[in-house]
Structures are given as structure tokens and as C-alpha cells.
Amino acid sequence: MSGLNVLVYSGPGVSLNGRAYLLRTLRQFLGHRYAIIPIGADTLRAEPWETKAVLLVMPGGRDMPYMAELNGPVNTRIRAWVASGGRYLGICAGGYYGSARCEFEPGTDKQVVGDRELAFFPGTCMGCAYEGFNYKSEEGARAVEAIVDRSAFGVAESLWRDDPTKIRIHYNGGGYFVPRADDNSTRVLVRYPDDVTDPHDRSHRIKDAAAIVSCEVGRGIAVLSGLHIEYAWDFLAASSYTQPHNRGLVALMRAHDTFRRRLVGAIFLHMGLSPDPSAMADCADPSHSVRAPTVTPVFMAPARATGVAAVASAMYALTAMATHRGECNIEGVKDMVLQDAEDIHVVTAQTGDRRRVCASYEHAVLTPDDVGPVSATDEMPESRLHSMLVLCANDALPDEHETPRFDMRAAIKYMRETRAHTAGSWLMYADTTRSTQTFLERNARLASHLPDGTVHVATMQLNGRGRGRNAWISPVGCLQFTMLIRHTQRKQAPVVMLQYIMSLAIVEAVTSLPGYDALPLRLKWPNDLYALHVPVSDSDDSSGSAPAFAKIGGILVNSSCARGEFTLLFGCGINVANRLPTTSINSVIRDYNDTHATRLATIPVERMLALATAKFEELYRTFLVYGFDPLLKAYYRRWLHSDQIVTLADRDYERAQVVGISATDGQLQVRSLQSPRTVYSLQPDGNSFDMLRGLISRKL
């Protein structure tokens, strides 16, 4: 199965503005089914990133620092990975870096000339294609009228609709690609107009200069671009473009933005990726771009908590913290702010309101300015984040117009039908948020006043977090939540084991339902959820492989301790209802029905939330009294590792067989095949990509 990680190099030399714009564009096109992860040279050098990567992107900036960080073994690994079926996208400096030779501004004080190790393009990247480039300003930028060769992409002709073949694309400092005479592995996707000049002799014009090339590299592919295809018009400030050749740049890019987006989508399709069709859609209003999603209000209501006094007390505690007057001047709105890491605008929903939040007030607070215009200093502006918390009594819950992708009423109904008290006591829901985990972790004042067991759910996370530097993909149909639990340390109930209880609870929440016991849902140590995956025609599987277990979820736990009490934030992501990018719980249920002639019902995300939190509380209460030992049988029944063979890198690659986990610290226990009386306890080495590689052993 193909990987799911899009790795974006973010080391020395990368333009900060360019990186920010690139990340937004990648999330817009690929964030629905791939994890967009910024990485540095240390990751490429030391971690097993190849196992899960689907694309490596080298942004614009300066390629000399790229060489200083990556030359040698790292470049060797990158090239080998691409040749074995990987994908490389190099933009501007990343295009120079991916060529066999770079000749940048020869004979000037900016000269950079020399061979490059990756050599995906076997010729020379010559630049700048246009004179006037300045590292510290936009004076050399222009909206180039690029010429698209649709026949070179190998995509459906219908993708292009009635788009012109000449598209305005942002240019600033990129090169053009000069092939070797014997090069049969490169095709030109896009060409510059005939106003490109030779950097060795600016009086000499270059006709049909290649602007974007696609290079066949073994079983893989590299696309190199001298154009900034990632730049949208609404990233840019018109005031930055005052030269005769770029004074109308923003207006030109705005007029051609739909065409640019379809070009970007076509490039990803050409590379064998699956871009989001909505990112390539027509824009009804030509004055607007198709923007990335923005955050929405967080609605909070009592779920399992039903006591009138307790509910009133919790709501009062939160409103009492909002003591600062906000800067929004909306008629009829009292803008009160809880100042934490973010400015949290606290609203109390009134019974009978048509909308729980005034539309103009919501727009004023939550419309972001998080992508600033290009600046001469290449520094991203710091701005304080804003969010909105809407407190709702049971008779003032949002309706389907305010939360169209999650039914809070149904979720609360399911919560109250399941037997639990603390876990899921209060429900917080946002259609779109940056990260449920980050919101509660950063805003410690708010978290300290939330009732024990509060669960924060979101349909879409713009920056969903996984273990280490991993990102969590947020396709529609995923259940994504963070639950706050306060835990007093007990000898028989060590806090480190709680992540295992949560992962077990999610699997048991489904398999303990009548008739669901045999569903192929499994645990991967220490905190991942897997299901049997049957490849489908539009998935990212290219090999037509047989069914195999694939990841459908994971657990991330953050903790803090004060006065003997731990505050734990359990971040959970579970693919409940979307069979892409791998599979989902409901896909497994349907497959099981097909093969066993059963009629098991699929599970709505709202019910899955109630089942998972209730099962966690059930297991947690057992754990508090008896520890993890009574849960080991159920854990082993559901895990993937019985008798698995692992290699111990820190013991001369000694091979050992998995025998279980420790009930006190959760470390993996293995028996040496060389010395069967020797048992080792293993912990991960901290890499973000493969938990069972690079294990660190401790002899027991």
C-alpha cells in the first residue's frame, strides 16, 4: 500500500513566506486524504520516513543551504526512494536542486553554479529565466503567461473544461530546464512564453523554454517547476508590485486563479496522487479564490451531565472568566473575551434564537488573517489567534444549519443511552478547528475550568496532530475528539497505561456490540487502531494487493501534573465512515456483511463517540481498582503482534519474538531467539514513522 505522508522540507534555506503558502496549497489540494508534514534534515537523515511517504516537496528559497544540509547520504536516500516508486516535487529552488546542474545568475554577485546530486532532471536548470530578481523584494516577480501542454499530463481532457492553454502563474527567480541531447526520460508539461532570456547573455531570447518538467526516475517521478504554482492571488498584496512588468500581477492572477488551480490538480494527478476535486472547482465569484477552510465556533453543552446545579455551576465558571471586552463592535452583541493562549470569545446561547451566534459577529471574530502578504523581510507576521465558545443549555442546542456535519442532539441522546457518568460529561463541537488537542492543550486556563470528562469533537481539523511530528488526516467521516480526564496517581493504576485503555476501549466499543465480535479490528502497539483493508479501485493502492490490515485511527495523549493529579488529554482519531484513504469501521462492517450474509448496522459517528467514551469509563473503573492485568486478555485478543519477530538495532540486530506488554509501563516485551531465557523490554526510539523500527531495548 502506498504511503499517506506528504513531507515538506522546512530546513535552512527555505523561504518562510513560500513555505507558508505551499503548506496552505498542499492542505487545500491533498489534506483530505494525505498528512501534510513539515520536516527537517535530521528527519530525512535519521528516521525511516520512506515507509509512509507518498510525496517529498522541496520549496522555494536558496538551494545552497539545501546542499549543505542534505548532500551525501541524505540525497542518496531521497534518490533511491524516488527510484523505487516515490514522488518528488521541486518548486523554484527545489527545481534547481532536483536538476543535474544549476546555473543561477552566472557572472553576477548572486552567482550559484555547479552540479547537483539528485539529478532527477538530467540536464541544467538555467536561471533566472527573467532578469531583475532580488532576494529581499518582489521587484523581479511577474505573472508569467505560461503555456500548458495538456497532452503531456495523461489526465482526462474533461479536467481542463474550457480553460485557456495560456495561464498566468506567479514567477520570481525560477529557472528554465535545458535537457541533454540524449534525454528520453523527461517530458515538458509547461513552457514559458518567448520572452525568457539567457542568463549568460540577456540579449539572447530563449524560445520554448521549459518551465515545468516531469522526469521519469526508475519507478518513480519527479516534477520540477520554475514557476510558483503554489501562489494564489489572495496570498499577495498589490502594493508589493510596483514595477512596470508586475504592476497588475495580483489582478492577472485573480482572473486566472481557477485555471491555475486546475493546473495544480492536473500535476498531482499526473504524479499519481488524488487531489480534492473541490480544490479544482470553478469559482462562482471571480473576485474570490477558493480558500482553505476557516475555524468555526465551538458549541458546548452538557451531555451525560444532567444535574441542574452542576450544569449551571460549570457554565457560570466559564462565563466568569470572560472578563475582557473584545474589539468587535456589533450592534446588540456584548463581546466578552476569555484571555488565554488564544482570545476566546464566550457567548451564551439563548433559547429560541434562530442562530446561536450572530453571523456578523462570527465573521468578525473568526475570519482569519493567518496568511499574510509577501514581505521584503520574508518574515511571517505574528497575530493572536481568536476562537469562539458558545455555551448551550439543552434547550438551546445548535440545529442542522449551524452544525450540518454533526448532530449534537443525536450525540447527546446516544451519550445518555450508554452507561457512563464522567467520560463525555460535556460535549464541545466545532465543525472546523485547528486541532482539538492543541485547543485544549494551549488554553490551559480554559481547560482547568472544564468539567472532568469533557470531550471536544471536530469534523475537520486544519492541523490535526498525531504522534511526534505526524499529522492526522481529517477526511469527512472521521470521528476526531480530545477528552479531558483528571487522574490521581495510584500504585495499581499507573498513568502511563491509560493510552492502552483508550485504544482498547475504541476497539471493544464496537466488537462488544451483539454480533460484532468477529469484526477484524485490531490494535497496533502502542496506540494505533487497524482494520482489515480490502483495496478499492479509487484508493491509493497501486499494486492490487490482497486484503491486509491498515491504519484507521490512533491515540495521542498529553499530560500535566499538579498537586498529585494528572490532567490528561486523550486525542483520538477514528475513521468511522469514509473508506478512503485506507478503510473505515463502517467499510469493515459492510465487507463483513457481504462475506457472512449478516445485516449488521453501520455506526454513525455520533453513536461511535458515545460507545467509545462509555467503554473507556467501564475499563477505566476496572483499572483504578485492579490495574491493567485484568485487561490483558482482551488487549492480546485484539492486538496484531502475537509471536511477531522484531529486530533489535541496539543489540547488533538480534532477533526476538514478541511475548506481550508490561502491565505497569506498557513496554513491549520480547524473548531473544538466540538466548530464549533472555527477555527484553522495548520502547520506541522516538521516530515518527515506524514504531517497530529502531526499538530501544532493556534487558529484564
Order of strands, main sheet, comes to 17-18-19-20-16-21-22-23-27-26-25-24
Number of strands: 32
**Rg calc:** 27 Å
For the largest beta-sheet, the strand count, sense and barrel status come to: 12 strands, mixed
Low-confidence stretches: 284-290, 369-382
Chain-averaged pLDDT: 88
Q: Helical content, roughly?
A: 10-25%
Distance between the termini: 36 Å
How many separate helices? 16
Global outline: globular
Give the amount of beta strand, in percent. 25-35%
Structural class: alpha+beta
What would you say this structure looks like, in words?
The chain is of the alpha+beta class and about 700 residues long. The protein is built from 16 helices and 32 strands. The strands form 5 sheets. It has a 12-stranded mixed beta sheet, with helices on both faces. Strands 2-1-3-4-15-14-11-8-9 form a 9-stranded mixed beta sheet, with helices on both faces. It has a 5-stranded antiparallel beta sheet with strand order 28-29-30-31-32, with no helix packed on it.
Topology:
Blueprint: E1 5-9, H1 16-30, E2 35-39, H2 41-46, E3 53-58, H3 63-70, H4 73-83, E4 87-91, H5 93-97, E5 99-104, E6 112-115, E7 121-127, E8 142-148, E9 166-171, E10 176-178, E11 186-191, E12 196-198, E13 201-206, E14 210-217, E15 220-225, H6 249-255, H7 257-270, E16 298-302, H8 308-321, E17 324-325, E18 336-339, E19 343-348, H9 359-366, E20 386-391, H10 408-417, E21 426-433, H11 436-442, H12 444-448, E22 455-461, E23 478-488, H13 498-511, E24 521-524, E25 528-533, E26 548-562, E27 565-575, H14 585-596, H15 605-626, H16 632-638, E28 645-648, E29 654-661, E30 668-672, E31 679-683, E32 696-699
Helix pairs in contact: 10-15, 13-15
